[in-house]
Automatic annotation (TrEMBL), chain A:
It comes from Halobacillus locisalis. Its EC number is 2.7.13.3. Signal peptide: none annotated. This is Chemotaxis protein CheA. One of its GO terms (molecular function) is ATP binding.
TrEMBL record, chain B:
One of its GO terms (biological process) is chemotaxis. PANTHER family: CHEMOTAXIS PROTEIN CHEW, CHEMOTAXIS SENSOR HISTIDINE KINASE-RELATED. CDD domains: CheW. One of its GO terms (cellular component) is cytosol. Residues 8-148 form the CheW-like domain. The lineage of its organism: Bacteria, Bacillati, Bacillota, Bacilli, Bacillales. Gene3D superfamilies: CheA-289, Domain 4, SH3 Domains. Pfam families: CheW. It comes from the Bacteria. This is Chemotaxis protein CheW.
Amino acid sequence: METNPYLEVFIDESKEHLQAINDHLLKLEQNPRDLAIVNEIFRSAHTLKGMAATMGYQDLASLTHQMENVLDGVRNEKILVDGNMLDVVFDSVDDLEAMVVDIAEGGSGERNVEKVVAKLHSIETGEPIKPESSVEQVPEKEIHSEKSTMEVDEFTLTVLEQSADQQLNNFEVVVSLRDDCMLKAARVYMVFEVLEQLGEVVKSEPTVEQLENEEFETSFTVLYITQADKEEIEAKINKVSEIESVTAKPFSISLYTETQKETVTQHSEVPESTPEQTQESPSAVATKAEPKKEESQKQEEAQTKQVGNKTIRINIDRLDVLMNLFEELVIDRGRLEQISNDLNHNELQETVERMSRISGDLQSIILNMRMVPIEQVFNRFPRMVRQLSRDLNKKIDLQIVGAETELDRTVIDEIGDPLVHLIRNALDHGVESPEDRVAKGKPETGKLELKAYHSGNHVFIEISDDGGGINRDKVIQKAVGNGVVTEEQAMNMNDKQVFELIMASGFSTADTISDVSGRGVGLDVVKNTIESLGGNITIDSALDQGSVFSIQLPLTLSIISVMLVEVQEEKYAVPLSSIIETAIVKKEDIMHAHNKKVIDFRGKVVPLVFLKDIFEVPETIEGDEYYSLVIVRKGDKMAGLVVDSFIGQQEVVLKSLGDYLSGVFAISGATILGDGQVALILDSNALIK
Amino acid sequence: MTQDSKTLVKVIVFQLQDEEYTIPVDAVGSIERMMPITRVPRTAAFVKGVINLRGVVTPIIDLRERFGLEHMEETEQTRIITVTIDGMAVGLIVDAANDVLDIYEDQIEPPPEVVGTLEAEYIQGVVRMDHRLFILLNMSKVLSSDDIKQLQEIDV
C-alpha cells in the first residue's frame, strides 16, 4: 500500500482520538450541560473524520460524520444529553474502534454500521427542533447548506464573547492555498492542526466537511480563538507548504452583530482583496524567492517562540536497536577505561572519564525513552466499568490513582489483559448488587479503586473493591470439590494461601457462570502472565469488606538491578528483587536437618543451597572457614545461596540466552558485563523448593 | 550453458578432524575467532556456553563434541561460525574455516551408508570435487534441541 508510511501514524492517532472521545463522553455523562466537553468530543471526532477521509476509509469517515451531526446537535442545544443518546454514541465509538482495529490488522476498515447510523440519525432528527434557523445564505455557491452559512450562530457567538472576556483574541483567519496545490484537503488538515495547537477553531467557511472534500476554490476563512497574536498565527500557518497567503484580523463581535450581512459579504470577498495575494498570484514563480525569505524569517521568529512539548513516535524496535548499540558502546567504554588506566596518560584519562559520564547520561535517557505512563492502559477502564456496571445492574464508583506512573513499554503492552480480567472479576464477583449492599448496611454504590505507584525497583498496581470479599470456606469447599487441594491440605492453609487457590486453574467461585467473568480459566492465566513478566500477584481480602489484588511488576524488563557474586571463578547475577540480605557465617554455625545443611537466620531455619554443587562449577579455589550467603526469598520461603564472594550491586541489561538454550534450570537469562563477558542471571525461584 | 539452469549454492567450508564440512552461506552470520565463553550449567556437554557476540548473547556448540569426535585443544585456527537455523542463532566451534565454495545442486550425492564415525542423520549429502570430499550438514538436525531436552530431564 502506498499510504503505508502514514498508516501507522493514522492508527495511533485514531486510537488516541477515540480514547479522548471516550474520556470526554464519560465526563459528559457526569456534566451533561457542559458544552466545553461536547466541543472537545466534537473536535476529536472531527479530526478523526478528516484523517479517515484523507486515508480513504470511507466507512470510518461517514460513521464519524453521523456522530458528529449528533454532537453538533448537542452543541447547538438541539439534542439533549441523556443515557439513551450516550449509549448510541458509545456504540458508535465502539464501532469506530472496531474499524480502526480492523485497519490496524490490515483490513479495509469496512463494517456494517447501518444500525448505529440509523440510531444516530433518529437521535439527530428525533428532536422536533428544526435544523438551524438560517435566514441568510452566503452569496457564494453553496452545495449542501445544512449548517454551512458563515452566519455565526448563537452558540458560536457565546463562545466568542466568553473568550473575549477571558482576554483571548478572536481572529478571522483567511488562508489561501496556491493554485497548483495538489492535496488541498491535506493542506487544510495541516492548517487546522496548526490552528488547533494554538487555539480553537469555532467556525469555518466553507464548512470543514466541504474543505475536506475539496469543495472549495483556493481559500477559506475560519473564526478562531487563541492566546497567540496575529503574527504568530500567520507565521505558523505559513510553515505549511503550498500556502499562498494567510491573513489574520481581529474579529469584533459587536461589529458583527451590527452589520451581520455586510460582514458575511466581506468574508467571502476577503481572500480576493488581500493585497499580498493579488500581488503574488499573477506570477507565483517569479516572486517565489521573496516570500521564501519572508517565510524563513517568520520561521525563525516562530521557533524562538516555540514552547510546549513536541513529540514524535518511534517504533519500539528502533529503541531496542539503539539500546543494543549503546550496550556495545558501554562495553568498549569499559575497555577504553582499562587501557587509559594502563597507559596512565592524563589527557586520555580525562577524555575517557568525560565520555563515561556522558554515556551514563545517555543510558538513562535511552532507558527513559522506553517508559510510558500506565495511563495508556488505565484509560480504557472507565469506559469498561461503565458498560459493565450497566450490564450487571450494579453501581460502581471507579477511582484511578497514579495513572502517571511510568512503566517499560513492553510491560505496558502485556499488563492490559490481566488488569481487564481482574476488574471484570471485581465487578462481577466482588461488588454486590445495590440491594445486597443496602441490606448489608453499605452505601448503594460500590467502590473500585485502581492504583499504581512506584516503590523501589517495582511498580505496584492495586485493584481494590469494597465488595463481598472472598469467602474462605466457599473457596476451600470449591477447591476440594474440584480436586485442586485435599481437605487436609486446606485445613492447614492460612487465609492468603486459601485466596491464592482462586488463581489455580479450574476454579470459579461464582455460583452462576456469567457473561462478564467466571469460566474458571481466567485467574490462573492472569497469574501466569504476571509471573512471566517477572512480577507476582497477591490477594488480600476480608469478608464483606472487600478484596485487594496487588500486582508487583518490575519497572522494566530490560534493565534489572542485580548483585554480582562469584562462585569459584564464575560470575553470576542474583536479581536484587529476590534478595533479602547477604550474610557471612562461620562453617561451624551450619546445622543439619533432614540431611540438609541449614542455618539459623534471625530465628528462622533457612536451608542452604550450594551453587557450586548445583551448577557443577569446576573447583579451583579452596574454601575458607566462612560461607558467604545471599539470602533469597520466594513468597514466605527463604534459602541461603552459598557463594564464594560478593562483587557488588549493578544495573544490568537482561538478555535472553536465545531460543536454543531456553528453559535452562535456574537461569533466567544473561547479561553482558562491563568487560564484555557474559554473566548468567540466577532464577532464585527455581532454587527454593 | 547447461550450468545456468542448475541451482548454485554458496557454502562455507570448515574442518573438523581432517574432514571438510559445508554450511550454506545464507545460514552463516559471521566467522569469529575464539573468544571467552561463559559456561551455562546443567546443559548438554556439547553446549560450551554463551558468548557476547556484539551485544547479543549467543549459545556456543562444540561441533566436535556434538559429533562425538575426540576433544582437541583450541589452536590459532579454531573458529566460531555463527549460524541462524530455524530462527535460532548459535555459534559452532570448528577446527578451522577458510573456504567459500560454489557447488551445484546436482553435484550433491546422498550420504553414503557409513561416513567415518559420524552418525548419518546429521548429513544431508556429500559433494566430490577435485579429489576432495565435502560433507553437507543438515543444520536443523545438528541443532535439534531434543537431545538437550532429554539431558535436562535426566538431570532434574
